[in-house]
Hints:
The complex is a heterodimer.
Chain A: E1 21-30, E2 33-43, E3 48-53, H1 59-66, E4 74-81, E5 85-88, H2 94-104, E6 105-108, H3 112-115, H4 122-132, H5 138-151, H6 168-180, E7 186-190, H7 198-215, E8 218-222, H8 226-232, E9 235-240, E10 243-249, H9 250-255, H10 260-267
Parallel strand pairs in A: 3-8, 3-9, 6-7, 7-8
Antiparallel strand pairs in A: 1-2, 1-4, 4-5, 9-10
Helix pairs in contact in A: 4-5, 4-6, 5-6
Chain B: E1 7-18, E2 24-36, E3 41-45, H1 52-59, E4 67-74, E5 77-80, H2 86-95, E6 97-100, H3 112-122, H4 127-140, H5 157-169, E7 175-179, H6 187-202, E8 206-210, H7 214-220, E9 223-226
Amino acid sequence: MTEVLDRPTSSQSVGAVEPLLRVSNLTKYYGHVAGCLDISFEMRPGEVLGIVGESGSGKTTLLNCISGKLAPTTGSIAFNSRRHGLVDIYDLSEPDRRRMQREDWGFVHQNPRDGLRMRVSGGANVAEPLMNLGRRHYGDMRQATMDWLSRVELDLGRVDDKPRNFSGGMQQRIQIARNLIHNPRLVFMDEPTGGLDVSVQARLLDLLRELVRDLGLAAIIVTHDMAVARLMADRLMVMKGGHVVETGLADQVLDDPQHPYTQLLVSSVLQI
Amino acid sequence: MTQEAAIRVDDLSKIFTLHNQGATSIGVFEALKLEVMPGECVVLAGESGVGKSTLMRTIYGNYLPTSGGVFVSHDGAPVDITKAPPHQVLEIRRRTLGYVSQFLRVIPRVSTLDLVIEPLLENGVELEEARERAITLLQALRLPEAHWELPPSTFSGGEQQRVNIARSFIREYPVLLLDEPTASLDAANRAIVVELINAALAKGAAMVGIFHDHDVRDAVATRLFNVSEYKAAA
């Protein structure tokens, strides 16, 4: 089982034209209320997509649909997985989809309590994804856990403490380590730096940029923080009322927004 | 002309529409045409507010033109950066098109040396060689060695600007946009930057620049381009 953890060697290097993710005409209704409407886009390996918009604009609905948590009303989500190639994730059987999620994805929740097991130690939380993939060598897993805890700047002496004994910011760092330790191809992040103090946020943003460069990691980041969007995203989608109202190169959308709503959003940012 | 232009600006128009201020339209320029050949440094002229920076940002793909195109020679073929998909624009910026702004916009807490070697690592240069080249350049720019391991957010304006210049010149981009790169530098450092620019031109780089300092402008410009000739009708 361990071989699935290895990165594909050079198969996805230059000129890879096959998308990592292809979302087509995705619509989600909650009863008669629209969550998100007719959304289509593609992502390439290594690309970081930012989704911005106000509360209730459909950002999180979209993220949940794409990440397999919420079946869309209509439309399809195809993901290029290591095991199955480019497949519609809702065409896979439940066990296959769950295995693909464990192997290829990470999901960093806004609230670390949603992404962590609060009753087992921080270190066990970080190592668990490796166990789920069949690793059984505890020494190796402990080592990998220690490596990741130091990369997210956690005190290694506290590896055996329970998450509830950590601060909110530290919990978030554990969650991030837990979601990157298994070398995912795509990481979903819902307001990942919302609960972190600014210095940790900076270190985290830098870490994520390094990973994107070194591992060819792709990420979808939902945020309302325009500064995070600028630093992290290659490309932005701006959502309002369930629709994508503007999309494009991140710095272009932020510096020369075309849609009235994007102009309002960008001009509302406080300057420091 | 048989040689391919490094930048060809084709009938470019830009009107800003401010939807939240009663849909006010501000016309900047229209039907603007400009060709820049390798080895040329075209300096944009015209008074403040005439659209020099807007033109530069549009060439960089940072602003979206109202009509027209900007063709940048990338891997030997002209690509319209205003219509290219985001990943291609980023690819062009990584390997072909550099931009030196007046301001350094970086991630907090990343050291100066790491910032300067980043463009090389992105282009697949080995860490050891990247470090050597970064050190050579930082020494040439006379940035004190004690600063190299520090993040530049606490540096003086002139020091930050030199980090910015090092980041842009280390890659030897074939096409370079210079938005007042010498704005906060003293005379000695300005002279060093002029040397860097002229060395890059001699190697065949194409440049578009904005310089308010006349000495620097005269030292690097191969010709002036007056943006106000294309002023949009009010």
